[in-house]
Amino acid sequence: MGVERLLASYRSIPATASVRLAKPTSNLFRARAKRDAPGLDTSGLTNVISVDPEACTADVAGMCTYEGLVAATLPYGLSPLVVPQLKTITLGGAVTGLGIESASFRNGLPHESVREMDILTGAGELLTVSPQQHSDLYRAFPNSYGTLGYSTRLRIELETVTPFVALRHVRFGSLTEMVAAMDRIIETGGLDGDPVDYLDGVVFSADESYLCVGVRTTTPGPVSDYTRQDIYYRSIQHHTGIKEDRLTMHDYFWRWDTDWFWCSRPFGAQNPRVRRWWPRRYRRSSFYWKLATYEQRFDIGNRIKKRKGRSPHERVVQDIEVDIGRASEFLEWFLDSVPITPVWLCPLRTRDQEAWPLYPIRPGRSYVNIGFWSSVPVGATEDATNRLIEAKVSALDGHKSLYSGSYYTREEFDELYGGDAYKTVKKTYDPDSRLLDLYAKAVQRR
């Protein structure tokens, strides 16, 4: 029924109008043009279709959230190979928009666990794609952001998990030492002789950074709960050495969601007096995102600043990736140039030895995803800080995620994000350009 509803809604959209999703939630942070035409009806594509514990696979509708997917797989002692850090990220969104998390240093990115997908193309065809069928579309789909089609069903690999995760938060006084330790864990798969299952990090300053090392365990014992008064990212900090912690597997997956990493601060949710009365059901990224959308729509923050005689701010919400050999250089530059902390770190290494054309990370190389989400005083020109960061990332031969604003020229964009390979697949599966072009969507914000 869900697919039939989707196809019916596709046919109802005028041929002169661009096809888009009609979805109630989003994790995008770039402006989008208003539209008059109705969007695709995805309301019947939100479920987990089946879990096969013998084959360690799941068939999942494209608009199913990871919150729903994890809830369906954990009772079998299984999880997706990579669980992005926010509950309302959808499986289809993570594949077409490149999700990432602390298992990415060993499991790569979400699209690498996809065995096959059903995709509604711009031509209105429903195709099953895999490494063997329509392999050009299968490989170009990641990072296409809905410009090559929309996934209606995905069959993904699962892995065995345990009830608990034992955590070690390792403090470093040097960014260079921290990145070197990260590199060693990626290369060896372990720390101090113990295997490592999950790895990410946080930078609070040039002389205070942490690697958060997770090991799956079946051993029962006390666990922390960061959905209450305590805040996860604050629990990481300590004066020296290693601090240990323990979470259920479920709470580990969603440790960042409760406070949207640290982005619940502007709403007062981290103020102990406010947090005490803040309903727990609203301590989640999707609710903060709604508040942020409202604030952005009416520019409330800058209006308040103006009344108080203070300068307006530029929003800086980005995730970038650089080769691990350039990570310290970028971090040192960033801390000297952009007044934003903390900064999130997530190492990754692709599993597949064949390249993915729209996001050409080199196989066999380690990269670090660096995320920063806040605002800074406006510069002399519009979006000055965002443009400065973009230029620095390009100078270091890195990439940035397209979920937020981008400023590349068409030539720069084509060089970074698929170029001729993208155009060929686009012409094949969307010959009448019913779906937006990737440059138009990501940079021109149409």
Textual characterization of the structure:
This protein has 446 residues and is α+β, with helices and mostly antiparallel strands. Helices cover 30% and strands 24% of the residues. It is built from 16 helices and 18 strands. The strands form four sheets. The chain has an eight-stranded antiparallel β-sheet with strand order 14-9-13-12-16-17-15-18. A hairpin with a 4-residue loop joins strand 3 and strand 4. It is globular. The chain starts with a helix and ends with a helix. The model has no long low-confidence stretch (mean pLDDT 91).
Defining key terms:
about 450 residues, alpha+beta, eight-stranded antiparallel beta sheet, about 25% strand, globular
In short:
This protein has helices spanning 2-12, 66-73, 91-97, 104-107, 135-140, 175-188, 232-236, 249-253, 272-275, 285-298, 300-307, 327-337, 384-395, 410-416, 419-429, 438-442; strands spanning 21-22, 40-41, 48-52, 57-61, 78-80, 114-120, 126-129, 150-160, 164-172, 190-191, 194-195, 198-205, 208-217, 242-248, 313-323, 343-348, 367-377, 399-400. With 446 residues, the protein is an alpha+beta fold.
